[in-house]
Amino acid sequence: MKKLFFALIVLAILVTGTFIAGCTSTAPAATPAPSGTVAPTAAAAITAIPDLTGIWTGTTVGHTLKEGFVEYPVATYNITAQKGRAYTGQKEYPRMDGKTYTETFSGIVTSDNQIFMGDSLSGYIEGKLTGQGSMELYYIDQGTDAKAFIIQLTQKKS
After folding, report:
1. How far is it, in rounded angstroms, from Cα 118 to Cα 26?
2. Which residue in 148, 116, 136, 87 sits closest to 6, CA to CA?
3. For the domain with range 54-158, which CATH number is right: 2.40.128.120, 3.60.21.10, 3.60.20.10, 3.90.1200.10?
4. How far apart are CA 155 and CA 132, in angstroms?
5. How do residues 6-45 score in pLDDT, each as one tens digit?
6. Which residues, in sequence order, are CB contacts of 8 under 8 Å at separation 6+?
7. pLDDT-derived band of residue 145, with 50, 70 and 90 as boundaries?
8. Parallel, antiparallel, or unpaired for β 134-141 and 147-155?
9. The whole model's pTM is what?
10. DSSP bridge pairs for 86
C-alpha cells in the first residue's frame, strides 16, 4: 500500500509539476522590473532543471534496528543518466560489517528542488537540493531492519 501511495505521489508530481495543495490559488500580480533590467519570469524559474549527473559524496547519520545508531563517513551517489526531471544511478555505502554495498535507484527532482528516489530494495528517499551542488536526503526503510538516515551530499567538481 505504501509503495502504491508513493507511486501515486511521484506520478502526481511528474504530471502537475507540484503538489495538489494550492493549485487553485491565483498567482499574485507580477511586479514590473526597474527600467533597464529584465526580470526573470516565473515560468523560467519553474522550468530550470538542475543537472544532477555526476558523483555526489557525503556523510550519513541515523539508526537501524540491527546496528543501532550509526555514522557512516562515506556515502556515494553516482547519478549516471538524467532525462528532464527524471534520473537514475547507483549508490554505494559502507555497513558496520566492513563491506561496501551497492544499489541502483530511480529518482525525480521537482520544480521546487524536492528530491524523490526509490532504490532497488525496499527503501525510499525524500530530500531537497540545498544549494548549488548540495543536497540533503532522508532515507526510510521498513521491515526487520528498519532504517532512518539523514544523508548530506555535495557534487564532486570535474
Report:
1. 33
2. 116
3. 2.40.128.120
4. 9
5. 444 444 444 444 433 444 445 455 555 455 544 554 444 5
6. none
7. confident
8. antiparallel
9. 0.69
10. 83, 108
Alpha-carbon span 147 to 120, nearest angstrom = 15
> Is residue 71 within 8 Å of residue 151, measured between CB atoms?
no
Residue with the three cell numbers 541502483: 104
**Under 8 Å CB-to-CB from 128, ≥6 apart: which residues?**
113, 114, 115, 135, 136
- List, in order, residues 6 or more apart from 86 with CB less than 8 Å away: 14, 106, 107, 108
Q: What is the CA radius of gyration of the chain?
A: 18
Cell of 34: 526597474
* Cell of residue 60, nine digits: 550519513
